[in-house]
Amino acid sequence: MALSEKRSAPGNQPGVLPQLTFADTINLPGTTDTNQKGQASTDQSADSLTQPYGFVGPCWYEQDITIPGTWRGMRVTLLIERTRYTQVWLDGHAIGDNAILCTPQIYELGSRFAGRHAQADGGCRQQPQAG
Prior knowledge:
Layout: E1 2-4, E2 24-25, E3 39-40, E4 53-54, E5 57-62, E6 65-67, E7 77-80, E8 86-90, E9 93-98, E10 105-108, E11 115-117, E12 120-126
Antiparallel strand pairs: 1-2, 1-5, 3-4, 5-12, 6-11, 7-10, 8-9, 8-12
């Protein structure tokens, strides 16, 4: 999946997809930490949890997708879990945003989106962890 670490935060202009350049990739399922994105941490604190790679700020994901024509008229959703505030676009059109932190986020793609889509974009804001 393509990854952009553009510092234009999701939520600054809800429903407006910023101009993005995707110069990196990330393997999913996975996290910015498991994919070694961000600054390597030297903190070896024994009294708190620490991440090997600290990633703070927004990141954007892009993936070309194909929704089969046989799914036309069916309910199609995108499920994202273990994230923070997100915004999702399909072919440049805002699908929605979600700030739920403790349960999966589900986006309704609807039944009108059968076919190949050049862009399925999602923005996610990573916040610093309280220590």
